[in-house]
Specification:
Elements lengths: L1 H26 L5 H13 L3 H20 L10 H19 L6 H25 L6 H12 L5 H24 L7 H30 L3
Length: 215
């Protein structure tokens, strides 16, 4: 029963994240930090977005293997399976959201803020059940474990900003201008990690009580 609850909470976390991605897309202020690098690579290579996501996520898993070496749990290779599930959730969330976006530029920013809150809730849920991380969070966690004393949310903010920065460099080098990455991407990279720290204080005790019977 506990395992079933953990799986259900994990799936709910992925759906919250997918809903956040859908709202971020609707805000039209730039793709999310997680998707920024695959998006730019897809524009450069001409390959479809799904293929580029798979390649980039595969690289994130490779980084985890290199960092953890013998401590890498091979069950983490299932991250690719859950990444595919996440893709289906994103499509479903986009269908549910339709063209929803609050009017005006301020409305776009508010829609983006809602997306960041949803992503932070999703991260707190699916990471809290301690099953399998998504590739980017798995890499972020591996990096944070190699740097004791620095909390996860700060490492996440750094990794997100690094992915966005790399995407910007590639965009200018190969496309001649900046495409797919806007102010919303930067805001998400900077503030999602901060929101995660706040949301975890509320969500984590609930997840522990439901999934592990902890008070």
């Amino acid at each position: 029963m506990r395992l079933l609850l953990r799986i259900l909470v994990y799936a709910a976390g992925l759906f919250f994240m997918a809903a956040g991605v859908a709202l971020a897309i609707n805000s039209n202020l730039g793709v999310s930090p997680v998707n920024s690098l695959p998006y730019v690579i897809s524009l450069i290579s001409g390959a479809d977005m799904g293929t580029c996501v798979t390649v980039v996520f595969g690289f994130y898993i490779l980084v985890q293997i290199l960092l953890k070496r013998k401590n890498f749990a091979w069950v983490n290779l299932t991250q690719m399976i859950f990444s595919a599930m996440f893709g289906y959730f994103v499509d479903f969330a986009k269908m549910l959201a339709g063209g929803f976006v609050l009017p005006g530029y301020i409305g776009q920013l508010m829609t983006l803020m809602m997306s960041m809150v949803l992503v932070a809730i999703g991260l707190s849920l699916y990471m809290g059940v301690k099953l399998v991380n998504m590739p980017m969070e798995g890499m972020t966690l591996a990096i944070s474990e190699c740097i004791p004393g620095i909390p996860f949310h700060r490492v996440k903010m750094t990794v997100d900003c690094g992915a966005v920065a790399f995407g910007i460099v590639l965009s200018f080098l190969f496309l001649g201008d900046l495409q797919g990455i806007r102010e919303g991407t930067i805001l998400s990279a900077v503030f999602t990690g901060k929101l995660l720290s706040l949301v975890q204080k509320i969500v984590s005790p609930v997840v522990n009580r439901i999934c592990f019977g902890e008070d």
